[in-house]
């Protein structure tokens, strides 16, 4: 009996040393068998596992089972981060922010903090708040600091206690600076920097362009946010899309937009024009087609509709935002008139920045 | 970071007992490499008023710097080591140094650092930043050092 107990004890004691029952890299790592962990993670990383890449980054970062190497660590973190793993995105941001093994690059750090923050990584949200609060290496932005501290507040008590002094001067619209975009069929992710004096609301539009002489559609994604990025994991049905980020005035009277972007080199519209026509009036319908054709040839997107907005006054040409006055004037020059057309500013329901409404029924 | 785990008078709180046991095991297995690995960014120092274990508001920036270097992942341990100057009784100073370290550890967990990643220790009057005779008030010694490995 004594021998039996002894042999059991010896067997149990030997188990960890022989590596028995180490099913995966994580348990090998936990048992400090770094060689096994590395071999398993290398194999999984080759199959595209972001978690394995993060593990390989940690091994190099800490110097477990190998010399410490920030460059190797960063490369693995970056690979995992590019696959969307928030912890790896956070580590990439930290190494860039602290300048570990490389020159400090706060603008890049901000992108990676934001990408992790958009995936609800609370420490990334807090650190991003700190960056925007202190303006350490970037332009400080109290509104964005407050936003990201607010997101982190539930899990990071220090974030809940932050009181960031806000810009008291009047806000204006300023085109956002888009620093990262990944608009694909599996996801839509955008990161931007806002001017510190800009108003708080940003509108993101992702639109599939109209084919040939079809009507243009409403944006596939139209998100209004006070954040400095969006992440939509529902993706799109097509890789054919154009997108932009727009800063909106707080009273919705004006905007400033970043340039349109696309994957396929799609020509952005000069503007979007809604032609309201009454199909029962044959001549009006024909005129609508003629104007639509001319506008499309000039680079505008056009839709012809018979829906008269009940909000609208009976203006011939109208636009919703102050910055679109010139656009509306340019559209008006395609239209018949015996005298100078003066476009009217009226924000109709569902009107987008850069959209002009022409009510052919109001032609005199 | 030289000889830190071995020479310092290490006190651990019940709160931190389990993670510290884990890191102690880690240290015993990799004593040499731990010492060599430890150098990273400059150490961060949080200063205290005489006799006080309260983290003052003007030290917040230092704590925020600490969380901007601490990466995600199990292997990273933040070491929070408290000290005291040589004013007063050495035993009381040992307790004070641990209280200071604990205060900093709490401030770090408030900033999102998981508690199990922290190793908290009080050095009392050992390993002083500035060697002084007894009874000398020295600001550099009223400090909690934050380092990581």
Question: How is this structure best described in words?
Answer:
- The complex is a heterodimer of chains A (364) and B (149).
- Chain A is α+β, with helices and mostly antiparallel strands and 364 residues long.
- Chain A is built from twelve helices and 13 strands.
- In chain A, the strands form three sheets. In chain A, strands 3, 4, 6, 7 and 8 form a five-stranded antiparallel β-sheet that branches. Chain A has a five-stranded mixed β-sheet with strand order 10-9-13-11-12, covered by helices on one side.
- In chain A, strand 11 (317-319), helix 12 (325-332) and strand 12 (344-345) form a beta-alpha-beta unit.
- Chain B has a single domain, classed as OmpA-like domain (60s Ribosomal Protein L30, Chain: A, 2-Layer Sandwich), CATH 3.30.1330.
- Chain A binds chain B through residues 29-30, 32, 54, 57-58, 61-64, 68, 87-88, 90-91, 94-95, 97-98, 100, 122-123, 126-127, 130, 134, 152, 155-159, and chain B through 26, 29, 33, 36-37, 40-41, 61, 64, 67-76, 107, 110-113, 149.
Mean pLDDT of chain A: 89
Ends distance of chain B:
10 Å
Q: Tell me the strand order in the biggest sheet of chain B.
A: 1-4-2-3
The percent range for helix content of chain A is 25-40%
Summarize the structure.
The complex is a heterodimer of chains A (364) and B (149). With 364 residues, chain A is an alpha+beta fold.
Question: What structural keywords apply?
Answer:
heterodimer, A: 364 residues, Serine Threonine Protein Phosphatase 5, Tetratricopeptide repeat, 12 helices, 13 strands, B: alpha+beta, 5 helices
